[in-house]
Amino acid sequence: MERRPATDVFHDWALRGKDEGMERGHALSVAEMIDFISVKSEQRGTNFSAVDVGCGNGWVVRILADNQFCQQAIGIDGAAAMINKAKSIDSENQYILAELPSYTPNEKFDYIHSMEFLYYLAEPEKMLKVFHDDWLKDGGWAVIGIDHYMENEDSLSWPEHVGVNMATRTINQWENAWNDAGFDNVEHWIAGGEDGVTLVFVGQKS
Ligand SMILES: C[S@@+](CC[C@H](N)C(=O)[O-])C[C@H]1O[C@@H](n2cnc3c(N)ncnc32)[C@H](O)[C@@H]1O
Questions:
Q1: Ligand 1 atom nearest to CA at 7
Q2: pTM (2 decimals)?
Q3: pLDDT tens for each residue of 63-105
Q4: CA of 57 to the centre of ligand 1 (A)
Q5: For residue 79, how far is its CA from the centre of ligand 1 (angstroms)?
Q6: Closest residue by CA, ligand 1 atom 24
Q7: Residue 100, C-beta contacts closer than 8 angstroms, at least 6 positions apart
Q8: Could you tell me where the beta strands, DSSP code E, fall in the chain?
Q9: Separation of CA 179 and ligand 1 centre (Å)
Q10: Domain 6-204: CATH architecture, name and number where available
């Protein structure tokens, strides 16, 4: 199948309402990722800012914004129809239409959340380093989930099936990339319940 930019494909998905299926499909895994952020923020006991990178229709931004300690939650996505939908649902929080990796935020965050975004980049390792160096405050955490990786064999047909390039890495390669990017306290687990396949990595900027 012809390969298209991911943001073009997801723009079409939003127009066809397929963002809602993604939201349902990712909910169990994302709940574990949000729990991680909630526990860390409760331990810290101070207000936090968070960004959801590749936010789709913004459903995670709205969950983060409901946290008692959240003072700012913003969503970034390169698909215009996703951002339009997010803005039509929610006028309280900020949604930014921007293509990664070229966009740089003008502030730093306590948490970066990202679900099913990173492998759409040609060089996800570089993005991890930029997240660490330029997007996170000292002490902040990145929490990133992906379903497409070498050990998840069912996912290996997705680039052809969806018609989008994907950076396919092993779990070990991802672990090296997180460490090389400068993150400390790097951990990973498989999220999503009994049949879950989401590879979640977390790491802190010291
Ligand atoms: C699989 S969807 C996941 C959406 C959302 N995180 C969720 O869980 O429902 C991937 C999202 O990443 C966005 N995306 C992919 N590549 C991107 C890029 N280079 N810059 C900005 N957004 C991108 C797409 O537009 C899409 O909304």
A1: 25
A2: 0.98
A3: 999 999 999 999 999 999 999 999 999 999 999 999 999 999 9
A4: 9
A5: 7
A6: 7
A7: 53, 54, 76, 78, 117, 121, 127
A8: 48-53, 70-77, 94-97, 109-115, 136-146, 184-191, 198-204
A9: 24
A10: 3-Layer(aba) Sandwich (3.40)
